[in-house]
Amino acid sequence: MSNRITSLFKIKYPIIQAGMIWNSPWELASAVSNAGGLGIIGAASMYPEVLRTHIRRCQQATDQPFGVNVPLLYPDIEQLMNIIIEEGVKIVFTSAGNPAKWTPILKEKGITVTHVVSSAKFAKKAVSAGVDAVVAEGFEAGGHNGREETTTLCLIPAVAKEINLPLLAAGGIATGASMMAAMVLGADGVQIGTRFAASVEGSGHDNFKSKIVEIAEGDTKLTLKKTIPVRMIKNKFFNDIDEAEKRGANAEELIKILGVARAKKGMFEGDMDEGELEIGQVSALITEIKPAAEIINDLMTEFHIAQKSVANFNLD
Q1: Positive or negative torsion for Cα 250, 251, 255, 256
Q2: Is 70 helix (H, G, I), strand (E, B) or coil?
Q3: Contact criterion met (CB below 8 Å) for 140 and 151
């Protein structure tokens, strides 16, 4: 398969593994890249020198392209970016902030830059900032989410209509059929998080991975809308937040309930009651923890089956 995304990143398949907080180590990134996709190291949960170690180990584990995801609101972002440049990373995905400052700096160093957005408006701003590609992430996605609550089905054609850059669809995609649907809507490829969170190589705690394959439809919800909206699994911590929001708690009180390192407590340390468990709606379709290479193979097999199915449609 060859298109604008595979050409831009020099990969076999237009499948990008999202750089998920506490779930995207070098082991996962290298496994995805070795299987023909684009692996991404998630820098959001890493101290600068930890990121350097993950980059170097990924470089040793694969000779294929891989990238690093950097939330632009990260407090030590300058240190992270310096390490990325020093270590010769060729692809950076930015999110959670304005790409205008860092995009030209990275591109001057020969780095390909992709930015994650939740609306057509922000997609156009990313284009103005000079990015090479855009990820349009729908409301279904896990973790931090857009306030617009636009679903992927609506978001992808809206963004495709407004920009001419290579476009990746994200949010609610975990099968080859949903991958093909996103591409029919105007995407050139997909960015997938939740399916890879439930992978052998993901760094999430085994309790968290098991929870992903256990939960059903309706077991995740977008919350913390007065601070930074985030989709998470309903558990005791979620219920505490939900009750506070229902009685009108302000942002300051919600931040106090959230506390420090809540996501680490849940996803990385395995506290299924008090931890923040960020995952997408599509988790309801995931029933098995698999190696990353098998996930890539499943996606492409399902994609080709969907292609043949659509080719047989006859509405005359």
Answers
A1: negative
A2: strand
A3: yes
Beta strands, E only, the chain: 15-17, 39-42, 66-71, 91-95, 112-117, 133-137, 143-144, 167-170, 189-192, 220-223, 230-233
Beta-sheet strand order (sheet of 66-71): 15-17, 189-192, 167-170, 133-137, 112-117, 91-95, 66-71, 39-42
Q: Which residues pair with 100 in a beta bridge?
A: none
Contact present, 21 and 42 (Cβ < 8 Å) = yes
Number of H helices, E strands in the chain: 14, 11
Burial of 33 (0-12, 13-18, 19+ CB in 10 A): buried
CA distance 104 to 315: 48
Q: 253-273: per-residue pLDDT in tens?
A: 888 888 888 899 999 999 999
Q: What pLDDT, on the 0 to 100 scale, is given for residue 265?
A: 95
pLDDT tens, position by position, 18-68 = 999 999 999 999 999 999 999 999 999 899 999 999 999 999 999 999 999
Note the pTM of the prediction, 2 decimals.
Answer: 0.94
Q: Alpha carbon of 146 to those of 95, 110, 161: distances in Å?
A: 11, 30, 19
Name the pairing type of β-strands 167-170 and 189-192: parallel
Which domains occur in the chain, in start order? 4-203+283-308 (3.20.20.70), 215-282 (no CATH)
Cα–Cα distances in Å, from 198 out to 177, 230, 269, 297?
Answer: 19, 19, 15, 15
**Contact status, residue 131 vs residue 114, Cβ threshold 8 Å:** yes
Place of tokens 């949903």: 178
| Six-digit token string for 144 | 């931090």
- Give 75's DSSP letter: T
